[in-house]
Amino acid sequence: MSDGPTITTIAQRAGVSIASVSRVLNGLPTKADTERRVMSAARELGYVPNSAARSLKSRRSNQLGFAMADIGNPVYLAMIREIQPLFKAAGYRLVLHSTNVDEADEIDVLRGLGERYIDGLIMVPLRVTAEHLNMFAAARAPIVIIGSVPEGTPVDNVRTDSRKGVRLAVGHLHALGRRRIGFVNGPVDTVPGAARSAAYAEALPALGLPYDPSLVEVGDFYRTDGARAVARLLEREPDLDALLCANDLIALGALDVLRRAGRRVPQDVAVAGMDDTDLATIAWPALTSVSMGSAERGRAAAELLLDRLDNGRRAPRVVTVEPRLVVRASTTGEETP
Predict the structure, then answer these.
(1) Tens of pLDDT along 190-228?
(2) 3-class SS at 243?
(3) 7-54 classified as CATH 1.10.260.40
(4) Can you tell me the distance from the alpha carbon of 298 to that of 58, in angstroms, rounded to the nearest whole number?
(5) d(CA 57, CA 294)
(6) What is the pLDDT at residue 64?
(7) How many CA atoms lie within 13 A of 28 on its CB side?
(8) Domain with CATH 1.10.260.40 in the chain
């Protein structure tokens, strides 16, 4: 029994090479005559291998991508909840990709835009390298970046002000009378890690407090790594009376460590996180956190991408979402069941 037409039979019918057929079916630039012959042969043979082939004329897959560091992070889930309904209403399917903060994987995703398996991409890179910037500039499909990128980068961009968020949290802890304010960060070679590290170092002197590097510990943006970093900091600086964590996952690890150490939150140590994820409301005690507008950033990115698909020649836009402090029991008072 025949398996049906293939790119080989299309190449034979069209009188072109297999490579030429592959280029046409994947939406890559090809001579007009070659494209016409391949499309004609594909229709005659009834060749429909995937969405790209079904869209030979439109060159659209009706799919849009979202590439993030970790699909289990509630920050990205908040974004997805906003992105998917907008894409669906516009007639697109959402394709998710978790990069695990792997630069090579992110570059592969960007390079894959040339194959047109998706019509556009929202990406949240934690590190932005020279190769990222080269790929942004050369991208053959629309891209929206969530996070900070250098000025002049030719992509639509949605960002928030991490530095202002840190200042809000440190100012809140200081207003509560805390003076030994520790800081547990993620990797400082990431965009958020670098911004939050710099902001913490600036915020303390602005409040009349010395910057003490011994009060700073670096781990990763995960609960278990955060807990280990908090444990190291607490062993080194047992007299700290407040703790700012670079995200809510680290802060949850901090609550675990402090509980095991017999330190009460917030009586002994006030704890604040960043991102204001769903986890902040179910933590015990409920976690004070700086909202970085995850849902708003997701919605803005989706709107920018859809607009770009309709208005491909417009200048890149930058949307900034303002952070805000959400105060809960982990800094202001222990709740009771």
Answers:
(1) 999 999 999 999 999 999 999 999 999 999 999 999 999
(2) strand
(3) yes
(4) 27
(5) 37
(6) 95
(7) 11
(8) 7-54
